[in-house]
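To whoever is on call:

I kicked off a structure prediction for a single chain this morning and the downstream step that reads the tokens threw a length-mismatch warning. I double-checked the sequence; it's 242 residues and nothing unusual in it as far as I can see. Pasting both halves so you can look.
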Amino acid sequence: MNKSMAAPHPQVVAPSLALLGVEPFRAVIEYATMHLMDREALPEGDGHPVIIFPGLAADKRSLVPLRNCCEALGYAVYDWEQGFNTGPKGDIDEWLHNLATHVRGVASLHNRRVSLVGWSLGGIYAREIAKLQAPMVRQVITLGTPFLSRGEETNVAWLYRLVNGQPPFVDDKLAARLRETPPVPTTSIYSRTDGVVAWETCVLEGDCDGENVEVEGSHMGLPWNPQVLAIVAERLARPETA
């Protein structure tokens, strides 16, 4: 794995169709490899709450391996409680407010700050909620989340339109908003061989309380990629900052 704060290349395009085409095969390989990893080496958790957000056209079933891993380490893991992720509908601020209400409820239940883990589009939600509810958020961890994208640098515009009914649209104002890093410790996990989103759009920029971590793997397999599970476990186990 590689850690860096390099800015993305200015000429960003969607991954090749060849790379997209082998995504399912690579994800299956990663799933099999997950069962061979040494989980005894992962750091034990402190029991704080963790909320996991699924990617586009996915729900909590896609995140079972990640959830099981976090629960086995001792964390109180919660689903985002919105079912199948079709993308925001209606006013985006109202949509995020509803998600933030769930985060506040979990934080209040445990009387502890919550870690937010988001895969792909789910990472966008996690980042934006952390900006709205920073005092209640311990950290944000994103998996293949294209927060620098306007939509054309991915291979899922057709899928977004299919499940949402609207084409993905990011204007200048929204792009600037999504680019801003949350005011809490933030980790962006990405893969240069991601066949769904351009890896360059997943890279934190400039001087911020964040870190980029590169892994080897597919986009579809990120929630069960052994490297990703190890990184998430290490980040969740870090001492809480003031």
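Update from on-call: the warning came from a stale cache, not from the record. Cleared it. Sanity check on the structure: The chain is about 35% helix and 15% strand.
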